[in-house]
Write a structure and sequence with these properties.
Layout lengths: L9 H25 L3 H25 L6 H22 L7 H25 L4 H26 L4 H16 L11 H19 L4 H58 L1
Length: 265
């Protein structure tokens, strides 16, 4: 009797479609509440469609039969990030209420610590879930840096763009793709980026204080990335030295065997 190994991706992908629908509903609520303009609508819709398409493709490739509770939390965060993205895009044409943007961002940041706990408690941690969580975090930081840059200057975009610059650099220098050891400091710095950018974006502090807050965020991020890049470079050098030593030993061994063979002949 033949076994049925057909993979059914529909249950998991249906949840991504629901997520896209909730995203559109959130945009409709924002549009009704604040009168969001075309830029916000278009950006929000593009975000919803792109998230649905990328996540559906990733689910199909990972062959997950269930979306999982933790991924549902992350999808909820992605929906909130889509709302924040729409509001930031709308801010180029008008001035949306800061309280709404701050509220959506704050909830997204709070939920950042929830999906990981849910994954561990339910035993549903997956590589896809970890990557999904990381990409949502990175995009939120990018969007917040765009928003804050409108008041403090384009240099703030360094914060949001640093992770993407690292990914691009890894294509040219493959040694940057090596796995990094777990680090509480790295996680703390990553979490602080959203908090500090949100604080500056809320505009509760004087301009000089906001500038100091964002400079602190940038300094911590440069330190964290710099430390990781240095560790990866040292690791690559060490691996290269070990490989060279192994090659040298093998060459010496082959040479000795050839000498012995010659003598025996």
């Amino acid at each position: 009797m033949a076994l049925n190994n057909t993979y059914d991706a529909r249950p998991a992908q249906q949840e991504t479609a629901v997520g896209a629908g909730v995203q559109i509903l959130l945009l409709a609520l924002l549009g009704t509440a604040i009168g969001m303009g075309p830029a916000g609508w278009v950006t929000g819709l593009v975000f919803a469609i792109a998230t649905w398409a990328v996540l559906s493709r990733a689910l199909h490739r990972s062959r997950l039969s269930s979306f999982g509770a933790a991924n549902r939390v992350t999808l909820g965060r992605a929906t909130l990030v889509g709302g924040v993205t729409a509001l930031v895009a709308d801010s180029f044409e008008s001035t949306p209420p800061v309280s709404v943007l701050v509220g959506l961002t704050a909830v997204a940041l709070v939920l950042d610590g929830v999906d990981g706990k849910v994954a561990r408690r339910t035993g549903t941690s997956t590589a896809l879930g970890a990557r999904f969580d990381m990409e949502v975090d990175a995009f939120l930081i990018l969007v917040l840096s765009v928003y804050v840059s409108m008041s403090l200057g384009p240099w703030v975009l360094l914060i949001g763009g640093m992770r993407y610059a690292f990914v691009a650099a890894a294509r040219l220098a493959p040694w940057l793709n090596a796995p990094l050891p777990p680090s509480t400091a790295r996680k703390t710095v990553a979490a602080l980026q959203g908090i500090l950018l949100l604080l500056a974006g809320a505009d509760l502090l004087p301009h000089a204080a906001n500038l100091g807050v964002v400079l602190l965020a940038l300094g911590l991020l440069v330190w964290s990335f710099g430390r990781d890049v240095l560790w990866l470079w040292r690791r690559s050098r060490m691996r290269a030295m070990v490989a060279a030593e192994v090659d040298e030993v093998l060459e010496s061994s082959v040479a000795e065997v050839l000498v012995e063979a010659t003598r025996a002949a």
